[in-house]
Amino acid sequence: MKVCLIGYGKLGSSIAKGLRNAGVEVTVSTLPPTDEWAREDGFSVVPMRACAEGVDLIIVAVPPSAVPAVMKELRGVEVPITSTAALVKLGELKKYADKVYRVMPSVTVEVNSSPVLVAERGGGADSVVEAVWGKLGKVYWVNERVLDAALPVVGSGPAVHAEYFRSAVEALVASGVERSLAEELARESIIGTIKMLEKYDPYKLRSKVETPGGITVEMLLKLEEEGVFGKIAKVLGEKGRELSR
Ligand SMILES: NC(=O)C1=CN([C@@H]2O[C@H](COP(=O)(O)OP(=O)(O)OC[C@H]3O[C@@H](n4cnc5c(N)ncnc54)[C@H](OP(=O)(O)O)[C@@H]3O)[C@@H](O)[C@H]2O)C=CC1
Ligand SMILES: O=C(O)[C@@H]1CCC=N1
Known about the structure:
Blueprint: E1 2-6, H1 10-21, E2 25-29, H2 34-40, E3 44-45, H3 48-51, E4 57-60, H4 67-73, E5 81-83, H5 90-93, E6 100-104, E7 114-119, H6 126-133, E8 137-141, H7 144-154, H8 157-174, H9 179-197, H10 202-209, H11 215-225, H12 228-243
Parallel strand pairs: 1-2, 1-4, 2-3, 4-5, 5-6, 7-8
Antiparallel strand pairs: 6-7
Bound molecules: NADPH dihydro-nicotinamide-adenine-dinucleotide phosphate and (2S)-3,4-dihydro-2H-pyrrole-2-carboxylic acid.
Residues 6-12, 30-34, 61-64, 66, 69-70, 84-86, 104-107, 155 line the site of NADPH dihydro-nicotinamide-adenine-dinucleotide phosphate (NDP).
């Protein structure tokens, strides 16, 4: 399979590396200075129209403000297009191309382990979209409203989750644990928790950990009193509702 990737920034470079891991041939089109970064990473960089020739899929990973210019330059190209841009709706993309989809992944595509929301089925090239994006994680076909509502947890997710991880590490360091050990312990704990969440819902998991009158319930009640979890749900939920309007 061959892919043309437009944009080699934070997300684009992760997409390129994830696809390469999976044996997909990637050609890049981007502006300076990231054109040089793509070359240093071993990708071939060409002008946009040349990039779009003879490929199975085009992935547009440029800032939302640059999408109209890129779509205009791709006008008339028959190859299906997937846009990763937040904020640019399908209705806008369809003004420029027939076979076009919105995709919402996260940078964890770099390790081939991202939820990949795709809107919407029936865009004229579903199987090629599934085949390419399926190399980068688990594909979920959704309507556009769900893609936007889920963006705070899917697209932004790694940054939000990393902040919890960082806080846990700082807590351990403050308690006298060496940073390298603290990072390893926090990481292993999260990996184990994720595996348990595949078996149990979060309420059940919490009740398995809380010893009555013990340390866990004491800490969790304190965090709830501070509004920590409620605030996360409020901010992410408000943003999801705003985006999906
Ligand atoms: N970062 C993330 O985790 C996620 C991002 N997204 C979406 O993906 C898109 C990219 O985000 P991100 O990678 O963070 O952004 P960056 O700003 O890091 O990267 C944007 C890339 O697009 C290039 N570019 C800008 N304008 C053009 C143009 N006209 N033609 C060709 N290339 C161009 C930039 O080149 P240069 O910098 O060299 O000028 C850069 O390589 C955004 O729309 C964002 O909403 C979606 C999900 C997750
Ligand atoms: O922060 C952003 O706007 C983009 C979309 C999701 C992740 N990065």
